[in-house]
From TrEMBL, chain A:
Family designation: Belongs to the RGP family.
Record keyword Metal-binding present: no
Superkingdom of origin organism: Eukaryota
Protein name per the record: Probable UDP-arabinopyranose mutase 5 isoform X1
Location, primary (coarse class): Golgi
InterPro entries for this protein: RGP_fam
Gene name for this UniProt entry: LOC113710214
From TrEMBL, chain B:
Stated role: Probable UDP-L-arabinose mutase involved in the biosynthesis of cell wall non-cellulosic polysaccharides.
Alphabetized UniProt keyword annotations: Cell wall biogenesis/degradation, Glycoprotein, Golgi apparatus, Isomerase
Gene: LOC140016785
Record EC number: 5.4.99.30
Presence of the UniProt keyword Iron in the record: no
Name of the protein this chain belongs to: UDP-arabinopyranose mutase
Record keyword Iron-sulfur present: no
Enzyme class, broadest EC rank: isomerase
Main location: Golgi
Length: 354, 359
């Protein structure tokens, strides 16, 4: 199915472990994961030893590893809960990163075949994106399709794809109010499309099933937006929505693309939407401020790298959003801190490689 | 969720507009779905030819003589020898909704083998809101079995009215001539089970083969331009209408959806003929697209006609140096609006045209 040649040594699969026993998760993904190197980051709040089956090439990072890189003094960048995976993004030195939540397993497509989510993400990332004009037959670089009549020829070479946003069958990524209102609703619709989300259109990026080009947008994947009562269910977080919109604004500015659609993963049942809603609904409220901010965010001509862009965005967050809620002050600081960390760690890696 | 309410037929509120130059045999296959509706047939080409309409359909038919008679000198804005003439049908319709389809488009089957009622899907699309301000990763959130995803602001969940529903095609895809020449055997076999709103600020290539719209909301913007006989360009009629319509929808806060339904497109037109028609368009497009991307309509333009007239002014000012054709086109755009308003005076009973034929 993949049209591109995947160089295994260009890919890291980053797993944030929010549960100790990863045996069934890894076994379910063995056929897809086993050829790649894995970075497994244990949620620092999770006490105990991870259980990981044999036959994989992986590195595990725990609380102590995180502290030795970040320093044990309080940092505005917090790598706990779902954000632990960002530590994996930081220490990887591969070009492509694929990250999947540890409660997801491979899904089947409409023909009953198991979906290789990693291969699809890599295909999405290695083929051009087309953000400047909408193609009504979706991704024109997929086999069996093309640009339609009326698509300007000068736009047909496309741009590099920075982020690939996958989807979920079974338990879709709805917010708590929606899932609480429709407790039985499950996503059973397999939509056989990948498409580029147009330039300047914002979207809610779900961290459950993503891939990105670390070289292009790594610094923009910021673990910055942490709700006061953030928990261990996706209904109790919006950290990925924040980093996803940072990436989209930055991709729009730097001329990269963001794709959405395939691949699907099968998301298992977990948690209770009503309980999560009772515990944490701030996230839903805050979106009302967050989305217009990102929609109107414009970066300066001088911002030519992802790092520059993040710094500029952090300043805008501080200026425009901080007065609204203390969570934004923390987000702004975390963004600045993240870029510093990124520069330190990546230069350390390239020095040791030299 | 307990029983979904059936989609309304809208049989007295929707006209089906079909341009044709050959015959209407394709209507036999559509009979189960189209028979309740009134058809407006726009006969292109030689008016002395008789187009046979299958028995049992309620229709009105207009040939070139009728168009000239009804519009007088304004008939110059309606293309001849090109399916762009179909927009005459939009103008004379008195209904709220229009569905237009080409005469080489047939009923397609969904992956389960069931015949697709394209019109029903278009109606579903048009009667539910659009969401142009924030992209929903699970596509149209108003479809059964789906919803807005986490992170989608609640203040944006009401959506905006849907002005246009753009359907797709299985079998012969809508490729341009160069692509057809390079890939003569490519067929679209991929059924993508999605409808989605095209975001605000994004342009797209609109195809007129399988298209529905709310005539009351956006009708005057659906002018299919000057194509065919005596014109330097063809196969850009629906494109042009689509770009004008999208810009105006973005300005007025209306939405455009694309995706389902699929129809089965049976006939591949001759790529060499197509190349001759499109040739200039391929170059001009490189100027036209930046023009539409940069268009800004003043706040004072609050009706479609006002927006369209303003757009015509800007076309004349900014595209005239690309080719004198655009000056002609801009004038024709103004003529179109004048003709539209004459045939559709607001607040009065609609003017009667006398081509209605009973069952």
């Amino acid at each position: 199915m993949a049209q591109v040649n995947i160089r295994d040594d260009e890919v890291d699969i980053v797993i944030g472990a929010l549960h100790l026993d990863l045996t069934s998760f890894m076994e379910d993904w063995r056929a897809v994961f086993s050829r790649f190197h894995l970075i497994i980051v244990q949620d620092p709040d999770l006490k105990g030893d991870l259980k990981i089956p044999g036959g994989f090439s992986f590195d595990v990072y725990m609380k102590s590893d995180i502290e030795s890189v970040v320093g044990s003094s309080s940092s505005s960048v917090v790598f706990s809960g779902y954000s632990c995976r960002y530590f994996g993004y930081l220490v990887s030195h591969k070009k492509y990163i694929i990250s999947i939540d540890d409660d997801c397993i491979p899904a089947k497509d409409d023909k009953g075949e198991l979906i290789d989510a990693v291969a699809q993400h890599i295909t999405n990332l290695m083929t051009p994106a087309t953000p400047f004009f909408f193609n009504t037959l979706y991704d024109p670089f997929r086999k069996g399709t093309d640009f339609v009549r009326g698509y300007p020829f000068s736009l047909r070479s496309g741009v590099q794809c920075g982020l690939s946003c996958g989807l979920w069958l079974n338990l879709a990524d709805y917010d708590a109010p929606t899932q609480a209102l429709k407790p039985g609703q499950r996503n059973s619709r397999f939509v056989d499309a990948v498409l580029t989300v147009p330039a300047r259109a914002m979207l809610p990026v779900s961290g459950i099933n993503i891939g990105f080009d670390r070289e292009l947008v790594g610094p923009a994947m910021v673990p910055a937006f942490r709700l006061a009562k953030e928990g261990k269910f996706r209904w109790e977080t919006v950290e990925d929505i924040w980093s996803g919109m940072c990436v989209k604004v930055i991709c729009d500015h730097l001329g990269y693309g963001v794709k959405s659609g395939l691949p699907y993963v099968w998301r298992n049942e977990r948690g209770n939407a009503v309980e999560s809603l009772k515990k944490e609904w701030e996230g839903v409220k805050l979106m009302e401020e967050v989305v217009p901010f990102f929609q109107s965010m414009r970066l300066s001509q001088g911002a030519v790298t992802a790092e520059d862009c993040v710094i500029e965005m952090a300043a805008a967050v501080k200026e425009r959003l901080e007065p609204l809620d203390p969570v934004f002050a923390r987000a702004s600081e975390a963004m600045v801190e993240w870029v510093k960390l990124w520069k330190v760690v990546t230069s350390r890696l390239s020095n040791s490689a030299a | 969720m307990a029983g979904v309410s059936p989609t309304p037929l809208l049989k007295d509120e929707l006209d089906i507009v079909i341009p044709t130059i050959r015959n209407l045999d394709f209507l036999e296959m559509w009979r189960p779905f189209f028979q309740p509706y009134h058809l407006i047939i726009v006969q292109d080409g030689d008016p002395s030819k008789t187009i046979k309409v299958p028995e049992g359909f309620d229709y009105e038919l207009y040939n070139r003589n009728d168009i000239n008679r009804i519009l007088g000198p304004k008939a110059s804005c309606i293309s001849f020898k090109d399916s762009a003439c179909r927009c005459f049908g939009y103008m004379v319709s008195k209904k709220k909704y229009i569905y237009t389809i080409d005469d080489d488009c047939f009923v397609a089957k969904d992956p389960s083998g069931k015949d697709i009622n394209a019109l029903e899907q278009h109606i579903k699309n048009i009667l539910s809101p659009a969401t142009p301000y924030f992209f929903n990763t699970l596509y149209d959130p108003y479809r059964d079995g789906t919803d807005f995803v986490r992170g989608y602001p609640f203040s944006l969940r009401e959506g905006v009215p849907t002005a246009v529903s753009h359907g797709l095609w299985l079998n012969i895809p809508d490729y341009d001539a160069p692509t057809q020449l390079v890939k003569p055997r490519e067929r679209n076999t991929r059924y993508v089970d999605a409808v989605m709103t095209i975001p605000k600020g994004t342009l797209f290539p609109m195809c007129g083969m399988n298209l529905a719209f709310n005539r009351e909301l956006i009708g005057p913007a659906m002018y299919f331009g000057l194509m065919g006989d005596g014109q330097p360009i063809g196969r850009y009629d629906d494109m042009w209408a689509g770009w004008c319509t999208k810009v105006i929808c973005d300005h007025l806060g209306l939405g455009i959806k694309t995706g389902l339904p699929y129809i089965w497109h049976s006939k591949a037109s001759n790529p060499f003929v197509n190349l001759k028609k499109e040739y200039k368009g391929i170059y001009w497009q490189e100027e036209i697209i930046p023009f539409f991307q940069a268009v800004s309509l003043p706040k004072e333009c609050t009706t479609v006609q006002q927006c369209y007239t303003e757009l015509a002014k800007q076309v004349k000012a900014k595209l005239a140096n690309v080719d004198p054709y655009f000056t002609k086109l801009a004038d024709a755009m103004v003529t179109w609006i004048e003709a539209w308003d004459e045939l559709n005076p607001s607040g009065e009973a609609p003017a009667k045209t006398s081509n209605v034929k009973a069952k």
